[in-house]
Amino acid sequence: MSTYAAIELSLPEWIDAEIDFTVRYADDDARMALAIGLARRNVELGTGGPFGAAILRSDGELIAVGVNRVVPQQCSVAHAEMLAFMSAQKRIGRFRLNEDGARYLLATSAQPCAMCYGASFWAGIDELVIGARAEDVMQLSEFDEGPLPADWIGELEKRGIAVRRDVQRQPARAIFELYRSLAGTSY
Amino acid sequence: MSTYAAIELSLPEWIDAEIDFTVRYADDDARMALAIGLARRNVELGTGGPFGAAILRSDGELIAVGVNRVVPQQCSVAHAEMLAFMSAQKRIGRFRLNEDGARYLLATSAQPCAMCYGASFWAGIDELVIGARAEDVMQLSEFDEGPLPADWIGELEKRGIAVRRDVQRQPARAIFELYRSLAGTSY
Asked: N or C: which end of chain B has fewer CB within 10 A?
């Protein structure tokens, strides 16, 4: 093991107590409620930034979740979507989730930033379900989303990833108001 | 610790034996030779894909390195640049490297893919030094670089990240020929 080699990222302990992996999250509203709930609890419990994400199979089985852990883990990569991708791949044992022929979905409380957007192409997902828009994030917080291709949705769809956005946009936006009211440290 | 929470990523063991962290990598050629050497050894030793990266301070001090570990670690996030960012942040203890006022540089053997490109905005680097171009990667291998903003260099420069590319482009390209000749598994 190299001196600088071992990188360990973890989700907060409350995930185990609060997230029910036996429930089926049958539709986009249920999946987005899960993602938004993760973001809210992450803010309320002070375990990271106001972002939550989940990976599910199309039948509603929950595979993995993620929350933003940038500040507590001092790692700029530790966005909610990235932790969800990595956790799901670890659980499934594949670097492309959908190579088993099932359809996989990422539900994320806010539009992926430039990094998470790029990561979405390699993770093996078929559907991307988004709550708040990038402009909501940047209007209500100091978080920067970074530059995307002009037709960022088209680029996903060209590669077989369906995009549904504005799912529960208002509750998703409200997370950033909560975050601001609690005067959290942005990353 | 959540059931699906602990994600561990590591670099191969040969890094410790082969990479000298006491050397000063004084110019772009030395830094790119380091990144290309990491990519080459990763291919030769079968420890991942044909990509290498390093984070240095502008005085040439080596902070961290990365190689592609997607297949061995079954993780689509484990690109060379991502491991270099995470290792450097762990060593320095900050999620934005350059908050100490020093200038930090990423040297990468090939143009960052869409994910690593986005990650470059958040990692706290000031300079991005690139070997092979995306078209070299895609012409010589089956690796996909993903979609970038039309003016991807301009977007970096707008945010204070200087870009120098085609540094040792031919030796950097040659890594993909080596990789193909060894019939490696692409990520």
From this structure: N
Active-site amino acid positions of A: 81
Where do we find the tokens 């959540």?
A: B2
**CA–CA dist A77, B64 (Å, integer):** 15
Beta carbons of A65 and A38 less than 8 angstroms apart? yes
pLDDT for position B2:
47
Low-confidence residues in chain B, pLDDT < 70: 1-5, 183-187
Token reading at A34: 């899960």
Q: Please report the pLDDT score of residue A2 as a whole number.
A: 46
Q: Using CA of residue A102, residue B144, residue B9, residue A47, what is the dihedral sign?
A: negative
Residue of A nearest to B120 (CA): A115
A104: closest CA among A51, A63, A68?
A63
Residue B96: left if φ>0, alpha if ψ -120 to 50, beta else—which one?
beta
Tell how strand A7-9 and strand B7-9 pair up: antiparallel
Contact A74 B91 (CB under 8 A): no
- Cβ A169 vs Cβ A131: under 8 Å: yes
Looking at the complex, report in whole angstroms how far the Cα of residue A99 sits from the nearest Cα belonging to chain B: 12
Token pair 């790692």 is at which residue?
A75
- Which residues of B are identified as catalytic? 81
